[in-house]
Design a protein that fits this description.
Blueprint lengths: L16 E10 L9 E11 L4 E5 L8 H12 L7 E6 L4 H6 L23 H13 L5 E4 L7 E3 L2 E5 L4 H14 L3 E5 L8 H8 L3 E5 L8 H17 L16 E5 L5 E3 L4 E5 L6 E2 L4 E6 L9 E4 L4 E7 L3 E2 L4 E8 L3
Parallel strand pairs: 3-4, 3-5, 5-9, 7-8, 8-10
Antiparallel strand pairs: 1-2, 2-4, 6-16, 7-9, 10-18, 11-18, 12-14, 12-17, 13-16, 14-15, 16-18
């Protein structure tokens, strides 16, 4: 039996019309004994049709999705919608306010907190509410991410391998509809604490994105995010007449199969990249050198690519610690 979430809201998810309010997370602290954290939520319902859950701000330093969903909720009118759209532009609100990947309240990463805990810390409570209350009523889900402060991606959409052929087909169709320059399928790697993993448990076709990063936005990344969300809403029949602009080029379909598609720093220091975003690289090729400022006469420690493929992501900051991700590859596929 699913335990009841401690998060409350005055939103009536079954009522037609437009509602905008907050999820209230009980939060008793020194400055506010009976306080609560307010997570903004917008619900637009208009008769029969699919329920689409749109989330951003899962990580607070990823801005393309937040901007996209704020602009979307301001422009959508009830009569445009068929069914129900649930919008969380700032899913981990404390992290969004702080501009951090993790919440400053509990130092937790929402996208590593599913399925959550109704009696846990605020981030765990948010994860539990999304999985138990929102994904349980959703027919489709889109979770908008970018590389945040530490990574930069070629604008991409992604989904995961699932064991249901019909859902796998729907996810691939959503990926193509989003029409990011790259669309990749992530093979199972043991990570079951993400929003996409939660959607999989709920049986909901879902896609995510990695729309850019570097702790900022660009004209291109925001445009890809806005167009992509609109195209998905049209594709699933949620907002059939929404303006999506001109058709973009077809998505380049790729896959990420194993941990060997990632390159990690082998040491502490300053890293020198030996390749860049979009480059085609070969297994065994030098990827980076890590220099030690404390002993500048010491030879750098090298890192190498362990797979051949295309670089779709690279680290932004120069200082590194052992285990920091430097590069992320993908390879073409024929899904």
């Amino acid at each position: 039996m699913t335990r009841k979430s401690r998060i409350t809201t005055d939103i009536d998810f079954n009522r037609d019309g437009r509602q905008q309010s907050f999820l209230r997370i009980p939060h008793s602290v020194h400055r506010s004994a009976y306080g609560w954290i307010a997570v903004p939520i917008i619900v637009i319902r208009n008769g029969d049709g699919p329920t689409v859950l749109l989330t951003a701000g899962n990580h607070g330093d990823e801005y393309e999705g937040q901007l996209t969903l704020m602009k979307l909720c301001q422009g959508l009118e009830q009569e445009m919608v068929r069914g129900r759209i649930i919008i969380l532009p700032a899913a981990n609100y404390p992290a969004v306010v702080a501009g951090l990947r993790t919440s400053p309240i509990d130092d937790l990463n929402l996208n590593r907190s599913f399925p959550g805990n109704p009696d846990g810390r605020p981030t765990e409570a948010i994860a539990y509410y999304i999985e138990s209350q929102l994904l349980s009523i959703a027919d489709f889900a889109v979770d908008l991410h970018s590389g945040g402060s530490s990574l930069m991606y070629v604008p991409s959409a992604l989904t995961t391998v699932v064991d249901d052929d019909d859902r796998a087909t729907r996810q691939l169709e959503m990926l193509r509809a989003f029409a990011a320059p790259l669309g990749y399928i992530a093979w199972p790697g043991g990570e079951d604490r993400t929003m996409l993993a939660a959607a999989n448990r709920a049986g909901v076709p879902a896609i995510g994105t990695e729309l850019g990063g570097s702790g900022t936005t660009t004209v291109q990344s925001v445009a890809i995010a806005e167009r992509g969300v609109r195209r998905v809403l049209r594709h699933v029949g949620s907002v059939p007449d929404i303006d999506v602009g001109d058709d973009p080029p077809a998505t380049r379909l790729m896959e990420v199969r194993t941990v060997d598609y990632y390159v990690y720093s082998p040491d502490y220091g300053l890293w020198e990249p030996l390749a860049d975003l979009g480059d085609e690289v070969q297994a065994g090729q030098p990827a980076a050198n890590v220099y030690c400022p404390q002993t500048p006469w010491r030879e750098p420690v090298p890192a190498h690519f362990r797979e051949s493929g295309t670089i779709i992501c690279r680290r932004v900051p120069g200082p590194v610690e052992r285990g920091d991700c430097l590069f992320h590859l993908a390879t073409d596929c024929s899904f």
